[in-house]
Amino acid sequence: MKYPALIDRLTAAFSAEPRVLGVFLIGSRGRGTADDHSDVDLLLCAEPEHHTGLCDDMPQLVAEATETVHSQRVGTLPVFTYIAAGWLRFDISVASPAELMLRAPENLTVLFDRTSLTETITGTPVPVEPDAATVEAMTREFLRVLGLLPVVLGRGEHALGVAGFGLLHGMLVQALRLTARVVDPGGVLSLKHLIPEDVYQRLEEIPAVEAEPASLIDAHLACARLFLPTAHRLHEKTGADWPTAMAEALETHLRKTVDERFAALTTWR
């Protein structure tokens, strides 16, 4: 089974459920920007009084459409994430008519509409903007984790240093995603279309890390050299306070305990 057939089966199952007023394809497939690797994101519309019952019955409703090998209910909204046989990935969320009407019509595709809900969808696309608290917390966490490099080197815990680099690299990717001023940034495995080509190339050029001192130092340096200028731009954009004292203390600490190349850390902008 391919994704189009999965969408057809899910639409048929949900359209036969009286509590479901509409079924909409959202995400990249709803916007018409999907590629061969994109999953399926479905939005079900139902009156608020039916949300709890509909969510409780979701496993049965999905089972009527397809066999699954994984299911998970995430959050209180909630979002249901599934993997069907053949490793077809799909997510399902539920919204009320009032919530649906706030969505931008160009960001969804109608699969089933019992009560002409489509005519009420008049939302305006609004770019996703980072907030100051998120940006400052991310920067402080990056500096804190970077400051653990002397610990893993001093203890010879090089394998744990690789894990620490993974955390830093993840925060770098998060920061780069936050710089993109787009309505829908897409899933976590989509980045190339969000940032400039030269920045993506610098990300790809960060060296692969091995569990040995020289590799750990080079990888941490490369990651910090791209993260810190990105973080500075985000702080300026959101008005978040830059942790100057923390950054200066870290620069001194890493220069003395790890490598002189960290001496310019506070100037990487």
Automatic annotation (TrEMBL):
InterPro entries xref list: NT_sf, Polymerase_NTP_transf_dom
Domain of life: Bacteria
Record-level Gene Ontology MF annotations: nucleotidyltransferase activity
Signal peptide region: none
Domain Polymerase nucleotidyl transferase positions: 13-50
Xref: Pfam families: NTP_transf_2
Protein name (database record): Polymerase nucleotidyl transferase domain-containing protein
Organism annotation: Stackebrandtia nassauensis (strain DSM 44728 / CIP 108903 / NRRL B-16338 / NBRC 102104 / LLR-40K-21)
